[in-house]
Task: inverse folding
DNA sequence: GTGGTCTAGACCACT
DNA sequence: GTGGTCTAGACCACC
């Protein structure tokens, strides 16, 4: 089992925003929700929301225009490989968990089929 | 999106122990590892390991025999439906995430197949 | 006149720590005050103190050992040119301000002499 | 070290205006730039410029004639000792900082000379 | 004891 | 309206 010490709120929200960018719900350069709207959207503290944008800016995922708002990075490259990368992580986690619970390949496939 | 406020280390370990009980690796009433062994097993701090048993005891999942150790709850009922329940949660989370990333049913099945 | 939008508390304290490192009061790799001690020392909020170390770590000036404390960067290079650099900034700011107040070279020199 | 909690933009501009009054660039009772001109002069937001005059009026440094503009306080006393006072502050700050950086009297004098 | 995160709410500067 | 900083105090994990 892998303990995830990085599963803090601000990390989870950043991941979610990345997911939205990867899936095309957000497009490169687009305006993100305001700090206060983000806080409302995820039911978190405005301060935590501000930190999310600060970290995204620090890591080049977003940029900020004072008084205007925070925007997703302009460069489409940045979000390019993100989708398949996130999917791969999703799948490997899922398969590992199911095997830990004692399900074999056929059962897993069957259960996924019936869930779709 | 659902923020996982329960993603602390000690919660993750409790979940993992439940998973082991659900999958039959642990059986009702069996002795659990000592606090030290648990700390060693998950590479966590002994303080945190101690807290894990404290919480499990408080929520009725385990009980302690002074000087002997901590044991999983005797009642098989408690861990009865756990396996399929956890699997269902696993699957629905996985499917939701993949759909959020924009994959359709065929793609998901294909990707799971190739991952197995 | 130059407006300094960066003169926030956390910036001022970082500068002060750099000054201490530059002047040899702090040496490369040494332990810094704990977050709480720093808060006490500068009469600031522990949260702000934590941010100071977070920023210093992000910019490579310090590193952190969980449960042990925060330490100045090991590399003496980092604090090498800092002293003369900070002195130059100090002097040019001082001279500019004095000239703005209408003092000429001789007066400035005389005033500095009598202040020493 | 003394943290400068007064380092907001509007405080910095007020200080600069005082410096101009102290150095004789502004004289007691003279008309100050309009809010718009002030914003333009310091490259700040008009809201911030308006606040500057509001604060100066509140602290007796200036007064406003409706429809005419804002004027420096009439009383020459107010700006009397300001020049030498500000110079003294400037110098003592500079000397302290240089000494903190580990420079001795001769070095400081030498550096000031070469900067002039 | 150590640092890190989160919440709550206030003030500042900019559009 | 926008983001940014600061204060206050709580909880978590690690040594």
Result:
């Amino acid at each position: 089992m892998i303990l995830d010490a990085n599963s803090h709120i601000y990390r989870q929200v950043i991941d979610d925003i990345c997911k939205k960018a990867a899936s095309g719900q957000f497009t490169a350069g687009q305006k993100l929700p305001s700090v206060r709207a983000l806080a409302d959207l995820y039911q978190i503290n405005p301060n935590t929301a501000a930190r999310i944008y600060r970290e995204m800016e620090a890591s080049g995922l977003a940029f900020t225009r004072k008084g205007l708002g925070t925007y997703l990075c302009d460069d489409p490259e940045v979000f390019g490989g993100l989708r398949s990368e996130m999917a791969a992580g999703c799948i490997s986690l899922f398969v590992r968990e199911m095997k830990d619970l004692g399900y074999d390949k056929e059962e897993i496939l069957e259960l996924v089929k019936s869930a779709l």
